[in-house]
Design a protein that fits this description.
- This protein has helices at about 10-20, 25-30, 35-50, 55-70, 75-85, 90-100, 105-115, 125-135, 140-150, 165-175.
- The chain is mainly alpha-helical and about 190 residues long.
- Helix 4 (about 55-70) packs antiparallel against helix 5, helix 5 runs antiparallel to helix 6 (about 90-100) and helix 8 (about 125-135) runs antiparallel to helix 9.
Length: about 190
Amino acid sequence: MTGTKKPAFDRAVAALAHRALSLGELRRRLARAGHPPEEIDAALKRLAELQLVDDRAVAYNHARSRAAAGRKGPARVRAELAARGIAGADAESAVAAAFDGEGVAGAAARAFERFARGKPRPLAAADRARAAARLARAGFPAAIIRSILASDGAGDDGDGAEGVTDAAADELLLDGIDDESGEHEPGVLRGAED
C-alpha cells in the first residue's frame, strides 16, 4: 500500500457518508479501489462492530421505496437486493415488510393504472399484452396480473366486440410468466429485458 492510498476503512466511511450501502456493495467498491481482501475484511468487520453498516436496514429501505413507488413487484425488488449483495432472510423479510400495507396486488394495480392512463377502457388486446409484459418485467406475480386483466375486461377483438372477456387470450399473454417459485422468480417474464 502506498503512502497516499486511503485505508479501506476510511474509504468505506466516506462512501457511507454519501448513501447507505450494503456490505456487498462496500466489498465491491473497496476491491475495485485495489484494497487487498484481508484489509477489506477487517474494514467491514470494524464497520459492523461500530454499527455503521446494516444490511437489514438497507434492504428494508430499498424495498419500501420500490414498493411505495408502485413500479416494481416483489420478484424485481428481490433481484435488485441481490444485485446489492443482500439475499436470503434479510431480502425476504424486507420484501415482505415492504409489500405488507396495500400488498402486492395494490402496487400492481397502481402500475397497471399508470400504464392505462389516457387509454380507452377496457384496453385493446395489444395494450393488454404490453401491460401484462410490463407488469411481468416489473416482477409482479402472474396470478395478480391475471386478476388485473380480468377486472379490466377484454379489449377490442378486431370484430368490434369490445368488452368481451377473453380468458384464453389473457392466458396466452401470460404463458411465459412463471406462477411458481423455484428455478425462476415468480412473475418474471422469461427472456424479457427491461
